[in-house]
Specification:
- The protein is an alpha+beta fold.
- It has one domain: Nuclear Transport Factor 2, Chain: A (Roll).
- 34% of the residues lie in helices and 26% in strands.
- The chain is built from six helices and five strands.
- A five-stranded mixed beta sheet has the order 1-5-4-3-2.
- The termini are far apart.
Length: 172
C-alpha cells in the first residue's frame, strides 16, 4: 500500500472523530430565566416571552407590550421600527395562528449582561455534503432592553435568509 492510500484510509477511519457534535436544546428553561440580579431576570423573561408570544405565536398585535416604537432592527430582511416590524411579521404570519408555545423547544441558552439578552437556538440545515441528511448549528439573537421594552435586535441573518423567529412557522 502506498503512502497516499495509507493517508486516505487513515483520514476515512478518523473522520467520525473529527465530526462536530450536534447542537441540542437546553433542558431547564425555567432555570435559564433565573438571575440573582432582578433586572437581568426581568430582561430575560421579557425577551423569552416576546419570542414565545409574538415571534413563535405570531401575536403581532401584542408587539407593543414588548417593543419600543423606535425599535432598531439589524436583520437585513425585516424593517426597523415597531411599525416596520409589524408590517414584516403580519406579511409572513400564517392564516391559522399556531398556539403560543409554553417553551421554546429549540432554545439552547439565554445570557444577559447589562441591557443585552442573547438567546441561542438549535438551527438545522440540509447537509450539502450528504444529500438527504441534516446537520445542526447555532443561531443567535441578541436584543437590547431599555426600561422594560425591546429597543434593538441583532441576529446572524443574511439577505433572503430567515432565522428561527420568522421561519418557525411557514405562511399558509
Amino acid at each position: 500500500m502506498n503512502i497516499l492510500t495509507s493517508v486516505v484510509a487513515l483520514a476515512a477511519a478518523c473522520a467520525p472523530v473529527f465530526a462536530a457534535l450536534p447542537v441540542v436544546p437546553g433542558k431547564d428553561q425555567a432555570a435559564m430565566l433565573k438571575s440573582s440580579d432582578p433586572k437581568l431576570a426581568a430582561n430575560k423573561k421579557l425577551v423569552y416571552d416576546f419570542f414565545r408570544v409574538v415571534l413563535r405565536g405570531f401575536r403581532v398585535d401584542e408587539a407593543d407590550k414588548y417593543m419600543a416604537v423606535d425599535y432598531m432592527q439589524h436583520n437585513p430582511n425585516a424593517e426597523t421600527g415597531l411599525a416596520g416590524f409589524k408590517a414584516y411579521f403580519n406579511a409572513i404570519k400564517p392564516k391559522q395562528l399556531p398556539p403560543i408555545p409554553a417553551t421554546l423547544t429549540d432554545l439552547v441558552a439565554i445570557q444577559a449582561e447589562g441591557d443585552y439578552v442573547t438567546l441561542s437556538f438549535v438551527k438545522e440545515y440540509d447537509d450539502p455534503s450528504a444529500p438527504g441528511k441534516k446537520y445542526t448549528t447555532t443561531w443567535f439573537d441578541m436584543l437590547r432592553v431599555v426600561n422594560g421594552k425591546l429597543v434593538e435586535h441583532w441576529d446572524s441573518a443574511t439577505k433572503g435568509a430567515v432565522g428561527p423567529a420568522a421561519a418557525s412557522v411557514t405562511k399558509k
